[in-house]
Amino acid sequence: MTQLKFFDFKSASLSEKAALMGRAGSSPFSSLGHSVGVRFSQEFSSCRGSGVFTKASYSSSSNGTYMSKRALSSVDKEKFAAENYFYQINGTSVSSSSLFSRNVKALDACDDEYGGVVVDPDRLPVNPDAFASILRFSLSHWKMKGKKGIWLKLPLERSELVPFAVKEGFQYHHAERGYVMLTYWIPEGPCMLPTNATHQVGVGGFVINDKNEVLVVQEKFYAPSFADLWKIPTGFILESEEIYSGAVREVKEETGVDTEFVEVIAFRHAHNLAFDKSDLFFVCMLKPLSAQIKVDDLEIQAAKWMPLVEFVAQPLIQEDGMFKKIIDICIARLGKHYCGLLPHQVVSKFDGRPSCLYYNVIDDQDVNCKGN
């Protein structure tokens, strides 16, 4: 007698019920309810939809695979080829009169613009076993559809599904606080999906007042060799934050001083830093709008206004080629021997989105961008 696995059918969701095979004893069901469908959208992030359903009656073939009783259309043949393995019962052949009823539906997903699929994370099966079965079916279906990369985002509260996805061949792509993203590359050959983010972006604020004093800080957490160093305020920009606004925010958070962005003076590109990521560090010249200092107790040990000549004379500055060059550039900018980069709002036809393009413009009417 063929053995089938069941779970609590009353508590199961529709998608879970769709993932189960049903057969009671030797009494056959008269028809097989069959539904397949993935509603694809041109919008990458829109993955809603209930699927497109078709119904057909199936009987078994000599190899135990259930075949359609009616003639298959070209579309049905494609679906049947993708679903073929689903209609096996423990690999055991059964008589042609044995029928069972089953609904099959691929995971809710939408097309991306590169021929891939993005699974809707809000419409995943509740039961892990049902998820595993539907995922296997979905992969077969997407292969037959000629899809390429599959993006599977599993929220933190659905972390129990990760082992099932990995078992089917999915690989880790990246993780955030609330989810893990996994991917599956269908075509043969090297994976063409973009890798995880390769860079972190930092900013430093060079703030100098009318007294030729630089706003400097000493951090609470530092390597022993930097114990006596007074440095400019620095930090990482936030997601969707501009470089210029990130520099202003970091200075405000660490010192309490309000500033106005002037220019990007220079930037550094380094590799194999934290977690083997690359690092972009933008040095921004800022104009102070206030003078009173209020130290951030979480990160900063002390902050003060320091005379420029005293700041430059620090041994750690003089001995470090990069920091010394940064100070040289900032001093050249103060003497109008150097012009930095200003952000300009532009819109590209490639994506239709506004962005900042940083470049300098020499304008006879702009005394701030004139060399002596």
TrEMBL record:
Top-level taxon: Eukaryota
Recorded GO MF terms: ADP-ribose diphosphatase activity; metal ion binding; NAD binding; NADH pyrophosphatase activity
One Pfam family, short name: NUDIX
Location of the Nudix hydrolase domain: 198-328
Assigned keywords, A-Z: Hydrolase, Metal-binding
This protein's record includes keyword Hydrolase: yes
CDD domains: NUDIX_ASFGF2_Nudt6
Entry keyword annotation includes Metal-binding: yes
SUPFAM superfamilies given in the database record: Nudix
Family stated for the protein in its record: Belongs to the Nudix hydrolase family.
Protein name listed in UniProt: Nudix hydrolase domain-containing protein
Lineage: Eukaryota, Viridiplantae, Streptophyta, Embryophyta, Tracheophyta
